[in-house]
């Protein structure tokens, strides 16, 4: 006796859904091209000679790639010094801002009082003040304590300036953690410091990674305060050095500036790739443990 296998009928795909999917994919490709094209243009210009850069019909792929711009940067001691200064300030600021922001955000998120709410609003309002207004007061304060034209003084400015965004970000992540997880830790005999570092910190690891990335990039790309507060050429940061590739009349050495910008973008990309893995790991690690 033969058995007939009944195969389920496939539902026909509607034409409207196919068209909508095509439009979505086309829109995503357009957005990706819009985001990627400037980076490709920057890399392309770093390998072009002056004749190709001055062409009326520029091409994305250089006809005769050159590496003289990268060789010139490799020999530039000021560029290396600026790269080292920016990397030192960005790493130190990233660590200090995060260390201060986590307990501050925990107090604001967990303490139920009007003062905590007012402080949170004040943190948000402080971001509406333009940075140019703060230059003169900050300079006078640093001059009074003898920290003008120094990395320590600039680091203090970055530490204070980065707290608002970092605390605001961490408050959101800490508030999303159920209080029952902390209470379970206390029931198991954890002290407040032990609960904080063994339970809460692993749970909010994605928020910590986000805060560290933002703190690093904000200092790495910072130009204004470094220009106003640092006068010693040996203490200047990388953005200040990149500015020297643009002449007084506004004519830039496009190939050298592009090559230096490509190198300057590598540390930020590496920091993002390094902390990216903690997004998934931290989402469940603390609560499971």
Structural overview:
This protein is mainly alpha-helical. It has two domains: 15-45; 76-288, MetI-like (MetI-like fold, Orthogonal Bundle), CATH 1.10.3720. It is 74% helix and 0% strand. The protein contains 13 helices and no strands. The chain has helices at 15-45, 50-53, 68-75, 77-110, 114-126, 131-144, 151-175, 179-187, 192-203, 205-220, 224-229, 238-243, 254-288. Helix 1 (15-45) crosses helix 13 and helix 8 (179-187) crosses helix 9 (192-203). Residues 282-289 have low confidence and may be disordered.
Tell me, rounded to a whole number, the average pLDDT.
Answer: 82
Give Rg in angstroms: 26 Å
CATH class of the largest domain: Mainly Alpha
Order of helices and strands: HHHHHHHHHHHHH
Provide the low-confidence segments as ranges.
282-289
What is the structural class? mainly alpha
Q: Specify the CATH architecture of the largest domain.
A: Orthogonal Bundle
SS summary, helix count: 13
CATH fold-level label of the largest domain: MetI-like fold
Terminal Cα span: 57 Å
Percent helix:
over 70%
Q: Main beta sheet: strand number and arrangement?
A: none
When the domains are counted, the total is: 2
Q: How would the global form be characterised? A: globular
Which range does the strand content fall in?
under 5%
